[in-house]
């Protein structure tokens, strides 16, 4: 599996060779530096820890992290994530060149926060009729009968906080790779607002 | 710095200037099998909307008594070229009122070109 860390820049639309228009999300992905290589013998599993988005000011790095970067002899990075990848050494850079046009990927990020929402927006409840004397508009309705189950089922959809959670969108296609500017153009939408950090993995 | 602007810049193209109410001929590239040919579409520009690479224009014509409208992206690579047949003199930015009109009332006044 190939993975890379990126940052969502926004959406636009592009034309392909046949003149067809596609909606794309522009993601600034990499270069990601390999911070640590985990091995089966030492850690029990194989993975690489990569860093993305360099921290320029030294005082913004806390002491424990500073030690890790200093030991590896690398610059400090804001985002650290692990990917199960092999054949990499500490200090190596992962760039968008690992991805190609037409690759199927999945994107993981923190979705936009929606605040406290009702059941219609949060759980796709239907709600009631708007007119003809209806007095039942956006309420959840009955949440359980009195004789059975005589309680509320677990995981019953109720109003509450929505969004700001980790979301993965699968089956996204790469429309174009701009290696000179570290950009990936991904067909369709990905989680989060502009500036959201994303994990991009090849394959579904 | 603006990466999205830089991407859009690469798709920008100039198809010539035309306005709402102009009668234009759009030469559209059509692919049939492995052959490509050019098909003209002549009609009145009844709207232009959007900006940058997202801008589109709508062309309306009446073909065998049936109104046909096509929307083209201004930057579409499928447009070979655009020819202006007639300049129209209109007071509106969107000529949707033409849809309900027939014959003489659907005619657009031609713009008089003032020579200096």
Please report the number of helical segments of chain A: 3
Query: Can you tell me the residue ranges of chain A where pLDDT is under 50 for at least 5 consecutive residues?
Result: none
Query: Main sheet of chain B, how many strands, which sense, barrel?
Result: 5 strands, antiparallel
Q: Unreliable stretches of chain B, pLDDT < 50, 5 or more residues?
A: none
Compressed to H and E, one letter per element, the order of chain B equals HEEEEE
Shape of chain B, please? globular
Overall body shape of chain A: extended
Q: Radius of gyration of chain B from the CA trace?
A: 16 Å
What's the total count of β strands of chain A?
Answer: 12
Tell me the strand order in the biggest sheet of chain A. 1-2-11-10-7-12
Output the strand order for the largest sheet of chain B.
4-3-2-1-5
* Rg of Cα set of chain A: 23 Å
Q: Per DSSP, what share of the residues of chain A sits in E-state strands of 2 or more residues?
A: 35-45%
Which structural class do you get from the secondary structure elements of chain A?
A: mainly beta
Mean pLDDT of chain A: 89
Q: What is the assembly state of the chains in this entry? A: heterodimer
Distance between the termini of chain B: 45 Å
Short account of what is shown:
The complex is a heterodimer of chains A (204) and B (116). Chain A is mainly β.
